[in-house]
Amino acid sequence: MRVGIIGAGPAGLSAAYELAANGVSVIVFEQDALFVGGISRTVEYKGYRFDIGGHRFFSKSPEIEKFWSELLGDDLLTRQRLSRIFYGGKFYDYPLKAGNAFRNMGLLNTVTCIADYAKAKTFPKSKVVSFEDWVVNNFGEKLYRMFFKTYTEKVWGVDCKDISADWAGQRIKGLTLGSAIKNALWPQRSPDKGVIKTLIDEFRYPRLGPGMLWERVRDEVVQHRGEVRMGQKVVEIVCRGSKAVEVITQSVDGRRDSVTIDALISSMPMRSLVRALGSAATPSVQTAAEALKYRDFLTVALILDERKVSDDNWIYIHDPNVKVGRIQNFKNWSPFMVPDQEKTCLGMEYFCFEGDGLWSSSDHDLLALGESELRSIGLLKNQRVLDGTVVRVPKAYPVYDDSYQRNVKTIVDELSGIASNIQLVGRNGMHRYNNQDHAMMTGFLSARNILGADFDLWAVNGDAEYLEEVDDDRLTPRRISQAKFGS
Q1: pLDDT tens-digit profile of 360-407?
Q2: How far is CA 200 from CA 189, 436, 482, in A?
Q3: Cα–Cα distance measured from residue 277 to residue 353, given in angstroms and rounded to the nearest whole number
Q4: Which of 11, 72, 219, 411 is the most exposed place for a label (fewest CB within 10 A)?
């Protein structure tokens, strides 16, 4: 049996690892010519390493945590979290610290927030459709406008009223004003099953960034005689008899190649997958796929002639007067990310749409914008910017608009009739905005399906836990979590 895997990100490489370790022939097709890991890759520029978005290694899945530990060993560092929110010219600790928050907000704003929260709890919106509805119900109007609205609209480029409540429920699940205040007064130092992911204050991180993990996983796949083909964009998937039988790729120089397959695991954007299926996809599936939307992303990495800028791992920028959405301080994630400890490398993160003004700006202009906004915020004063680079990431975030669920359902429901041997995994493959551990779990379970199990990949929740009740004759989540990878 030969299995094709589209994408060398967390989902694709996890599937490849599991299959190759069990003696299955696998070929991974990765569009990027240099980096594995998808948006969990680590980019290197003149010895400076930076993460695309910042990836904390924390999961409620024991299996995922064990995998990270086994692959990275002593290269997996334990880090204390420090993140803040910049709003109204002030820095707020996040997770909230009561004294800091009350001092910054002042008495009037604090009282208003409490009153709005009480109002929301007493008279909640009965129909929760949008992100705005969900947050106002859980936090009140004032806190929504201070700490959610501006940042969220920067990330997605649309009004919060046009973002599905599903996104809020998924990304800030379990977080309410009550839980935030409780954490502010009695912080939880040791993450466990009961901790809300948003509030954890300790996490693990690879010494040289998350790409270090995925480079090792790639090497393990190759060591087990699997193939990882870089710079290969999947442009066509040939189907016969309701099966995908051939994958056609195109390299950067335009050369095409084809590979016959018996099964296919796809982590490529769902819209791109349907386009690659061509006429095999029904008109309804094609229409649904074209209606799916994505948000793109770019990082402006600035190298500063300064030993220490701040203690933050990252800062959320809620100020509407600047375009930057988040700032990463890579040396504070791991000192090994910066080759000269007298210097600092900051990542200015901008959310955009491919082809818009930000995306189309020259690298020179983006570097100038990043420096200007860093000085405007006050993190950069007299220090010099020595150098910098720009990394653009298309389709970084699947958009949760009011029609995405219907479109995804149409595609998934009809895909089995088009090509029953295709499994969808990962963030873009499933059009689900989830974290690295979720993507990994879908990859592992898709591989186990090929090995004889029968998992519903859509039953993996945002905490990388498999929730569907299963029969005793199938692998169960308990047995999986106790099993050694590749055994």
Answers
A1: 999 999 999 999 999 999 999 888 999 999 999 999 999 998 899 999
A2: 8, 16, 25
A3: 25
A4: 219
